[in-house]
């Protein structure tokens, strides 16, 4: 797939000396979903704002669909839809008119069939004649998505799109994201729901203190930084880890009925067979074993902690 967004050595510094972005380079392919993760103040929103033409960079270049965001900003901006964190809607305007108006701002001709399709996909059709002030927070966020899609963009930015949205609405929104991806729309999202990023994104980018720490395919990131934990469920509780096994990194649960053991699935030898054999030799009866995979949240916190160290 060709790159639809090309970011080269992008930086943003403010007069106060604060550096919001520091030499960020990133290429995003057409049709992919990429999630940007980072703590508050990491630079995620600044990066999105620069690409969307809302903030002027200090250094570097950005091209969207081959158009430079500064020298050919009109063509670049026409390719982009943005769903911001903040909910800003005309309180007395009808939902359907909000979408129609935004479409017109981009010079797109009226297309009632397309507007209806968007509203139906976002479960807003029944609310099309309601004033936006009458909607719940979750429904207002849906209107923002509808407005962002109104001009049929090729790239969609979702800045914390499910913040304040209940579980049912969140699931429906991600179904819409999946549909857009199948239609070839490139999606860049920031989220604090890390399980969603793990499930939805093709690649994960981690940002901290204005630096893009890494960008990896999601499965590769989990394989490289993730780990598995073996949980050994015991037939009888232990008071402590056997002394001669204390150096294995075993962690005894509070109730003494299970031992946890972290291991690397990529290692030639995980040590599991030896561990179970040693437990049996010491008269520790194993009732059951299970494993759990570290989550993207564990990976994210580990990476950010390393950067802060």
Automatic annotation (TrEMBL):
Residues 5-234 form the ABC transporter domain. GO terms for molecular function: ATP binding; ATP hydrolysis activity. It comes from the Bacteria. Keywords: ATP-binding, Nucleotide-binding, Transport. The lineage of its organism: Bacteria, Pseudomonadati, Pseudomonadota, Alphaproteobacteria, Rhodobacterales. This is ABC transporter ATP-binding protein. Pfam families: ABC_tran. InterPro entries: AAA+_ATPase, ABC_transporter-like_ATP-bd, ABC_transporter-like_CS, ABC_transporter_ATP-binding, P-loop_NTPase. The keyword Chaperone does not apply. The keyword Transcription does not apply.
